[in-house]
Prior knowledge:
The chain is about 35% helix and about 25% strand. By secondary structure, the chain is of the alpha/beta class.
Amino acid sequence: MTLELVDVSMSYPQRGGPKLALDGVNLTVSPREFLCVVGASGSGKSTLLSLVAGLTTPTSGEITIEGHPITGPGPDRGLVFQTGSLYPWRTVERNVAFGLELLALDAAERRRRVDWYLAETGLADVRRSLPRQLSGGQQQRVAIARALVCEPDVLLLDEPFGALDVQTKEDMQLLIRQIWRDTGTTVLMVTHDVEEAVFLGTRVVVLASDPGRVAAEARIPLAEDRDLATKRTPAFLGLRASIEDMVRAQHRCGVTR
């Protein structure tokens, strides 16, 4: 499924006049692409993801999936935030199964999906645990499994590993790439971490700040089968430096405007 943003702008009311958060964003995400969006604070990364999720409506422009306008949240999009936002009274498996309760599926298919995604995210052994009994990384695994169990066309990730320690963060990066390869789900991720974007993405888009707009993009011509050693290769380090320069240049432009 192709996700497309056409001339999308977003303004928020505030004292003294509307605040323009996004200005004329044009962006196409192709089927099975892993697109990472980076930018400095004020570039509208989370606003963009909220619009695609259907949680807010753009001031102007249109967002479509396979030509159909997005008018609100739907099962064709799964969303994972920086914190898991799990239901504390539900076990791991019941958190994962939550979205399936809204779909017309028989009990056997629901069990099959829950079992598969618990295994895929390494949670089968803690399926009957409550969120308070889990580590931060495990809680994010539950959130990812819950978003994917409805088998959405697009997985939306909003800084999902930003609150984790370095080792857990790298473990989760490896996990999400493996899930992406196994499921073929299209992924749109926003992050402030350029190294993370280069490691995970097939393409990286850089947003300029104040207002947010597409300033640059870079294809990531690294092998699909990546491991942590990839981060130490000259090709990776060169891509990271180039995109960091793009982000820094756009941040300077925003400050001096």
